[in-house]
Specification:
homodimer, Creatine Amidinohydrolase, Chain A, domain 1, 10 helices, 32% helix, elongated
């Protein structure tokens, strides 16, 4: 079933090509069901087996050159108006199309700094250079990272609706699970409850099953990006979940924090509340600051500064990432100026982008306070796509 | 849950490094849940978020350098004995490890000719060159394609058992569906029956849901690599399915042919039988010929020659591909000497490899006869992993 979002993203790409003064975007792929460029989900819609290329031009042409046995599937989707199938080899068809179009600047699907714009395998890149030998086209190749970044970042209204719905369903799942969890359960048992609620909604996970959901309880927990373990949730623990679901191809990615009351306690101890409040306020300060034109590292600094001023260590990661078709949707990042982030701290925030905001604060002897919310950037600020956590959620004593 | 096959494939890789005179295999990845190198499933077992590298040395060392938040997941798997987490950037840790190992030849994960050994994105390759600038290591990089090809091709007994089981379950599914299909059903309805049987077995698809199963009926059908349509199976049609399932991470990929009897017919017309027999005999001739040491194009030629001698056109694809963790398992291919196959027709068949054999013959006015079987290469020939189709399966007249 063709996704109508693809036609609409292709049309958006044509405008971006013009804006970037690029004549042709050429996505090159092979056996893409296995070594997969995520741009295929954005503007192609089905995989290919043999070396194939999808060309979108500044004047709106859409040409696919692919192995003959892949033709029917792409014809059925209908996103590419010209489909050139080959049997023995791609060279002639590709050179024929390039000679006809004679594009001045050809953007291909690699990027040093943005992993989601970096779907062209290195060997296939070398193969392309081989195919283009003796033609003028090899020297006209540039990175398509600018196209991919803009195309992923600039959400169209139906995309925003799907992300919003994914967030609403996830917040609802948190509320439902809250009524079902209690001390004595393991991280794995809590995760199983979440998966059961997700399946009841007919939705799927936003990332790898092995740590979606992530559930971590208490001071010795593994932290983000690790799967739930047999560790038991005990009184005195901070317990956190990090979870995202996919609604019609678009993701949520949210975190929530619980505290397990000890016998006799009616509220968390002051240290726990200080951690929770540091995170809660850091999120709100970042959201109050973010707006079109500011750089990612400036937004990160607002939250990071609040966390350290409150006496907690710096979080060992970025404040937030973009979200969309993927939970980590590439390009612009709310991150500090660290080597691993390359040029990305300096990318400017734009209207229509969706960011997570997710600082954390460890609380000695209890665990970690973390919340993660999602905002969409508006003309002069931002608006929540998730109903943010305002109070720490309490689990009664056993 | 760590897959015991991974430890065993890592041990096998160490032996292959020695055989190829390579000191260190370095798999480089980032955001690998999205832009995924299939070697990660073979010798790593979990994804990474930030730039990471997994090093396996000729002397058996296994070192992972990765972002600190990915540490716990890889520690839990236990496949890498040394895990070096970083917070701000990978450079220092990576250079430290390389200085200590001082490998003479470093194989990295790209390949011009073998798409399954080509999991390193081009931008990340450029980033690696940047990181290694000013060191001697950049000039020591070679392709790891020889390692990956051997590691995927040389099946260990537990791998063979899983593939065999995937085949047995698929043949059983064909027998079950045979009792449930009848003329008047659409390709989509037939596919739905197959999926229902698969789900009943608790198994999953071997490739993309959009054309797994592929079902094509009659003379106007779309052919392989296309999804089932609303086309109705009618008397006089050849109907084919192409389907694979995954059992404990290993795949089958088989095809079967049916003929729909017309009112009054008790057997298919001679033209249909000629097509079926051409394919049946071509498969058996190829299986009788294949053995260690022959080249892929020689095996293809045996089947291709039989098909054309029987008066049918050449099939527009290779005779067969390897199968294993993936339905298209890379490297050695039973293919003609065509541009699109590069050097692969000249790869020699080795003991322990598993190949599909899948010629086809179109029959004017009826559709296509295709069967696909799987063999494992033995010391002096091959052995079927799938119970091959001996007779055309008949669907009674309406």
């Amino acid at each position: 079933m063709p996704d109508p979002m693809i036609a609409s993203k292709i049309a958006q790409a044509v405008g971006i090509l013009d804006e970037l003064d690029i004549d042709c975007w050429m996505i090159l792929a092979r056996e893409s069901g296995t070594v997969h460029d995520p741009s295929i989900d954005l503007v192609v819609g089905a995989n290919v087996t043999w070396i194939s290329t999808f060309l979108i031009t500044r004047s709106g042409e859409r040409i696919a050159i692919l192995g003959s046995l892949d033709k029917a599937a792409h014809e059925a989707l209908g996103h590419y108006t010209e489909i050139v199938p080959y049997v023995k080899g791609i060279t002639e068809s590709l050179l024929g199309v390039l000679r006809r179009l004679d594009p001045g600047r050809i953007a291909i699907n690699f990027s040093v700094g943005d992993e989601l714009a970096d779907g062209l395998p290195h060997g296939l890149y070398l193969k392309l250079l081989e195919l283009l030998e003796g033609t003028p086209y090899g020297s006209r190749l540039v990175s398509s990272e600018g196209i991919v970044a803009r195309l992923r970042a600039r959400k169209q209204p139906p995309e925003l609706e799907r992300i919003t719905r994914a967030c609403t369903e996830t917040v609802d799942l948190f509320l439902q699970m809250h009524t079902r969890i209690r001390t004595g359960m393991t991280e794995k048992q809590i995760a199983a409850i979440m998966v059961e609620i997700m399946e009841g909604k007919g939705l799927t996970r936003a990332w790898d099953a092995d740590h979606c959901p992530a559930v971590f309880t208490g001071p010795e927990s593994a932290g983000a990006h690790a799967g739930p373990t047999d560790r038991v949730m005990e009184p005195g623990h901070l317990m956190n979940v990090d979870f995202g679901m996919r609604f019609e191809g678009y993701c949520s990615d949210l975190q929530r924090t619980w505290y397990c009351l000890r016998p006799g306690e009616t509220a968390p101890p002051p240290a726990v509340m200080a951690g929770f409040e540091a995170v809660r306020v850091a999120i709100r300060k970042a959201a109050a600051f973010i707006r079109p034109g500011v750089m990612g590292h400036e937004v990160d600094a607002v939250a990071r500064g609040h966390i350290t001023a409150a006496g907690f260590p710096e979080y060992p990661h970025a404040l937030g990432h973009q979200i969309g078709r993927l939970a980590h949707d590439g390009a612009g990042l709310l991150c500090p100026i660290w080597e691993r982030y390359g040029d990305r701290p300096f990318a400017r925030v734009e209207e229509g982008q969706c960011y997570t905001i997710e600082p954390r604060a460890p609380v000695e002897g209890h665990g970690v306070a973390t919340m993660e919310e999602i905002v969409v950037i508006t003309a002069d600020g931002c608006r929540w796509l998730s109903d943010p956590q305002d109070e720490i959620w309490l689990i009664p004593p056993p």
